[in-house]
Amino acid sequence: MKRTGILFFPAFDWSLGNSHPEREERLLYTQEQLFEEGILDLPQMKQFTPRVASLADVAQAQALFPTPSLYPETLDPHLIAAGSAILLGEARIRGEISNGFVLVRPPGHHSGATVWGNRGFCTINNEAILINQLRARYGIKKIAIVDTDVHHGDGTQDIFYHDPNILFISLHQDGRTLYPGSGFIDEQGGPNAWGQTLNIPLPPGTGDEGYHYVLETWVLPRLQAFKPELIINSAGQDNHFTDPLASMNLTASGYGRITELLQPDLAVLEGGYSIEGALPFVNLAILLALAGEDYHHVREPQKIGRSSLPLATLKPYVETLKKQTQMVKPDFTIHNVKFFPPGEWVYIPRSVYYDTEGFQETRQDFVRKCNHCAGTVYIESQRSHAKTKSVLVRIPFEACPQCEQAGYDLWEYVQQHHQEIHSGLLQNQLHNQHQVWQRKKD
């Protein structure tokens, strides 16, 4: 029998405020709906108990600045969400389940390679932590992430932007009309992973037909060409026509069809803020589709009240977008810093706004061009108005000897010579190790 795993962690003790979209009761109605429909009594359903991820698990995907030890206890629910994703991922790898749904909050896909706090309701990235743990522990190499949240998965993209073994696809409402204002067709990956990031910005009003058309004609062929060992769906539900934060027109049944088309190994809940009108029904449809049951009868009580973009209008837009995506050519700036090890280093500056707390992060990203691996990554990061910087040095999975040595050399140099660097993380993915360092005060 096909087994579908479900892990439910509603984090009732965590919220961003009583009137905030990301609040305690966000999954309360989903819980009631699943019990009422008897979905958990289906013979192919297997329930799992949440687990806490460690800071070491996080460190293989992200750098928490200034140091992890300074993070308060409010990080606990985020660690449980990430640990739950790891747990269900391991169950999938071991063959205990055929697929699964990680129904957890808080979400995570806006949390990137460096973390100074919460942004877009996210502090740590559940999918990225899950993926890097599966790669480190089980030797999984090729993984595809399909992010169907209405917002661009900018944090997930950031973490895997230089990794040729991760295919990241994001379908989202056009960033010119919605937070975080990114996810455009020219964002296609770093110098060693060009083409491994695919952004499909869709116009407001896109509904079931439009999403299914894009999946069938663009996303699925791309997945088939990549041949991933695992497919992870960042299953945001804020594309629903009742969601208060966006302008799309998906239905619960439309979500079921998305799941049926993608056939993900794991779906991991991201956004979705229509607590009563959408989430209970969308989650039900997704679970039914994962379990191989009929989801077409799932109907939300409210009817679509805003106009949908006709498929006849969307088709030429998508075809033009495809052509434009293919025409984009890589244009990277080589910037060899004095103390950098031998090789060509590509410079990619970034600025990240933390909307929850209202500050800016300024980053200087460098990646070593390499024909043999993902390349060493060096990131200097600084929170606005701070006098000191923090640094992330990443030695990638399957690093070649030159890139491995470059990582060690950079790590040693910044500790000895860069007085403005206050703290850092050496992310040694090759050996599943990490080192956290903080400069001692004089």
Automatic annotation (TrEMBL):
Every Histone deacetylase domain range: 70-277
Entry's EC annotation: 3.5.1.-
Domain of life: Bacteria
GO biological processes: epigenetic regulation of gene expression
Protein name: Histone deacetylase-like amidohydrolase
Homology family: Belongs to the histone deacetylase family.
First-tier enzyme category under EC: hydrolase
Gene Ontology molecular-function annotations: histone deacetylase activity; hydrolase activity
Keywords associated with the record: Hydrolase
